[in-house]
Amino acid sequence: MTLQETASRIFPGRFLSDEHLDDGFLEVQGLPRSATLQNCEVLASGQFQYRAGEMYRSSYLVRADQLVLLVRMIPASFDRMSAQISLTQ
Asked: Which of 89, 81, 61, 86 is nearest to 14 (CA)?
């Protein structure tokens, strides 16, 4: 399976951008704050923030369809978030 097909399984029914971001991530937009990863095994996870007072971001290392992926969950607004997905090397 391709990265885009696998991302569609992790976030079913969500819009996937056709372009990769500059750092090689594929972006999933318009996720509700309650969105969870589906159809994958979470191998590791953590939360971080760049600056005090900023909303926390979450990162996950997951296995899906024989691929190991890094997934970053990024707050986009009060009730929405986006996800960035990349193949690990």
From this structure: 81
State the DSSP H helix or E strand holding residue 9, giving kind and residue range, or none if neither.
Answer: helix 3-10
The closest alpha carbon to 57, from 44, 35, 73, belongs to 73
Q: How far is CA 28 from CA 3, 12, 52, 80, in A?
A: 12, 10, 26, 11
How far is Cα 89 from Cα 84, in angstroms, rounded to an integer?
A: 16
Q: Each residue of 34-87: pLDDT tens digit?
A: 889 999 999 999 998 878 877 788 999 999 988 999 999 988 888 889 899 998
Coil, strand, or helix at residue 4?
A: helix
